[in-house]
Amino acid sequence: MSKPVLEHSTSRGKIVQLIQKTMKMLLLWLGLTGLIGIATESAWAHGERSQEPYLRTRTVQYYDVHYDKQSVKVNEEFTLIGRFRLMEDWPDAVSLPDTVFLSAYSPGPMITRVESYLNGMPARQSFSKLELGRDYEFKLVMKGRVPGRHHIHPLLSIHGSGPLVGPGQWIEVTGAKGDYVQKVTTMNGIEVDNLEFYGTARALKWYAVWLALAAFWLLFWLVRPLLLPRWIALNKGREDVLISNRDITVGVILGVVVVAISFGGYMYAKHEYPYVVPLQAGTNKVDPLPKPAHSVDVKVLKASYDVPGRAMHVTARMTNHGTEAVSILEFATANLRFVNTQAPGADKAISADYPRDLVARGGLGLSDQKPLMPGETREIKFEASDALWEVERLVSFLTDVDSKFGGLLFFVDKSGNRLMTEVGGPILPTFTAL
Amino acid sequence: MNTETLQHPQGAAAGQTHAHDTVESVSGLSPKALHYSRVFELFVVAAIIMLFAGAIHLHVLLLAGDWDMFLDWKDRQYWPLLSPVVMIMFPAALQGIFWTYFRLPIGATVGATCLMVAVSISRPASFMWWTDYPLNLVLPAQMIAGAIVLDVFLLVFRNALFTAIFGGFAFAFLFYPSNYTIFAPFYVPVSHQGMMASMADLIGYVYPRSATPEYIRIIERGTLRTFGDSASWVSALFGGFICIFMHYAWWYLGIAMSSMKFLPNNAKVMALMGTKADVKASA
Amino acid sequence: MSTLSSRELHLTQTSDTTSRFTLSYIWFAITMIVLTGVYVSYRVYQQMYGMTAGLDSTEPIFQDIWMRLFYIQLPVLFGIVAVIQIYLFMTRDRNIDAITPEVELKRYFYLTMWLVVYTFTFYWIGSFFGEGDGNWHQTVLRDTPITPSHVVLFYACIPMYLMFGIGSFVYAMTRIPAFCKGISLMHVFAVVGPFLILPNLGYNEWGHAYWLTEEIFSHPLHWGFVVLGWNALSLAGVLMQIISRFRELMPIVFKHENA
């Protein structure tokens, strides 16, 4: 590129000075790049907050989620268990769970998966035909791999719609990444010392072979004049100087060598690995958890969200079809938990390992704390109030195309037995304090 | 100028050749001109490497990228079919350009090598260093074997049609065996949670890709007509068939895209840009 | 082929063919070094802040680290695009007809350097950051169109290649007779094709929001980028236009030059 109009060359000394000055500015730029904002804390959620409230409250509701450890060493296993309900009032916008995949969300393979189970069935493959309105139990066994603090969630992906995450927890992985080992023994007795490096060296050698052959062929032509001289010679009709018999001979030999290596290598690989299988692609089927013998029927009569007050108010008619009197223990939706602190066993409702940033400090307020007797029907109003609604971006009702909500209502009897019911229905936002 | 078939060169037929004629001597360029021609060639080589590393990689990434990127997508049905069909496009166009104007039988190899160089940089840089995946999850396929053979066919036949028929077919047919040597270890069976998996499936499972659930893989799911081991060769043969037409079409697309056409410019724009009726030396 | 002959271009042929022909590579070298530094620093930034601050757009730290960069780089980079073109236009050769073959040959070389830089910028978007984007989105959950990979891939790399793509076109049009008297069709494709990747983003993001909610890279939603990327081939046409003019100029410029 040149200065405008006037083309001239600068002296060598000035060129060197200019390049040195540019390099200094570059180093300064690189340094500044690192200084632009020092991360003081990491992001906690992983994108689920951008999903609309009606999606997150009416699809997959996770509950009874437990992380058995929150700090593991590299190579140490930890377990995530829990359950999820596929809500009956499934939104139209989300594909039905005809094909789903259970996983753990992690920002990359900071942890690795060891085993997964859905209702006791191995869950490496996807599952088909899960049922709405039913519950499933999952178990994920994972292993620390990359040191650091990582936010891990259970994750259910639905074909056609994408991922729906459960409550996330920080897992601290300590140790050195280089210590990570994943030993595997194949079905034909091959011992793999570390899955991380399996097959890599072999692949790199083969890439080197092919690149060497390509380099030979390219250099064979690139060392000669390439463009203008050949273009002129071709226009003069002198193809004889462009392609010689030697060129053809070398090309044919190279072609034969390539074919020989390709098929020879193939046959050798077949001999080396006589027992191989194709990628496994089937889906599994699993029955949902059995329905509980008794339940509490909940019909939402009115629901509203108080925007300035950051509170959800729900009036519902509840009928106890069980044999014991029950109290309302908890309202849970989109991984948020509102516990009625006056219910029996409320102090044990939230396990120590449940992420505290998803537990409402204010708990659940009720219009009537009296237990619901067997066979009784009563209208009860409950209020779930906390700034968490805003933090978790569950208040954007004005942008919803389908203003409905969903959640799980937990009941408990004197003995500590728990019942669970789906709740949901239309919800109206209000903009004045109620 | 005959862009298709080598006829008797006029100069040679007219008996105007000399035994020691070279490209340089026939071109008639002075040594200084040859020097700057070479400087120009260096720039062009650099540009071709960078341009086609970018263009071919983008092309393959968005048409067959998942199969090329991930170990647990390299099945018997789609991978041996889609990869060569997608990967032959740019090499065929480059062949058309390099052969038509320069009689250089390196177009396909240039394309394949540019892709290999590009993925060799981006796989470690992205998958390994940014998101910490092991390299074996994202080992790429190579198309260099097929590309070299495609170039050799062009060199021998010197004809777009026969190159497409034989070379295009060979390009696809060689894809599977030449890559099987690399990926064979990953089809070894392993038992995981009481179910059979290949090592590729296991690696794909162990290292979670959160936004890539297992069911999203477009891989062989089985039919009543899948005859076991021959599935891959059936895909390779079909890929060869498609590549014949793909090569032919892209050869001519390459030639069309190397048109030297200038559209006439508007007189006012020309005047604005700097052409003047009166001539004045300004260098 | 429709190259323009010397006669049509009304060039004056200098009689001074023994003048020394030299090229300056300084601006080319500086540009390549600066661009390399910028791209590397973007990659370093992604490495440092992708996982720690880029996973959730609702977090304040995301706003600080990524949205701030986004808001700064958009006007800066697109501003540079505009400044370069305006500068090239304002410093155009107002007597293109009068240039000597030597000057014209030099300008063809400088046009080649512009195109080399253009291809360099295309490599970073097509290959390096392109695959980085696939890697990022298949690893973590996508929540909005503005993610750490997109901030660099779309909103930095695109203006950066526009600087040199459009710049090469304006340079040629304002300094090289053939490119002034006629519009190089393939040069138009080479510039406009990749430029259209920018509006194609709108379609892409619409699709990711409403249609394709899962991360497959080889999906029809992305094929707009593929087709626009095919325009890379049209640089071959520009190459041939340059070479065919070299064929006419070199014998003139180097008529009496020795090695």
- DSSP strand content of chain C: under 5%
Helix content of chain A: 10-25%
Please identify the structural class of chain C as seen in this structure. Answer: mainly alpha
CATH names the topology of chain C as: Glutathione S-transferase Yfyf (Class Pi), Chain A, domain 2
Distance between the first and last residues' Cα of chain C = 32 Å
CATH homologous superfamily grouping of chain C = Particulate methane monooxygenase subunit c2. Chain: C
Domains of chain A (count): 3
- Given the structure, what is the number of helices of chain C? 11
Topology at a glance:
The complex is a heterotrimer of chains A (434), B (283) and C (259).
Chain A: H1 12-35, H2 53-56, E1 60-67, E2 71-73, E3 77-86, E4 99-105, E5 111-118, E6 121-122, E7 127-128, E8 135-144, E9 148-158, E10 162-165, E11 169-174, E12 184-185, E13 191-192, H3 200-222, H4 228-235, H5 245-272, E14 296-306, E15 311-320, E16 326-333, E17 336-339, E18 364-366, E19 377-385, H6 388-391, E20 404-413, E21 418-426, E22 428-430
Parallel strand pairs in A: 2-11, 14-22
Antiparallel strand pairs in A: 1-3, 3-8, 4-7, 4-9, 5-6, 5-8, 9-10, 9-11, 12-13, 14-15, 15-19, 16-17, 16-20, 18-19, 20-21
Chain B: H1 10-13, H2 23-27, H3 31-69, H4 79-87, H5 89-102, H6 107-128, H7 144-157, H8 160-183, E1 189-192, E2 195-198, H9 199-206, H10 231-257, E3 262-264, H11 267-273
Antiparallel strand pairs in B: 1-2
Helix pairs in contact in B: 3-4, 3-6, 4-8, 4-10, 5-6, 5-10, 6-7, 7-8, 8-10
Chain C: H1 6-9, H2 26-53, H3 60-90, H4 101-139, H5 148-153, H6 157-175, H7 177-181, E1 182-184, H8 185-195, H9 197-210, H10 223-229, H11 235-253
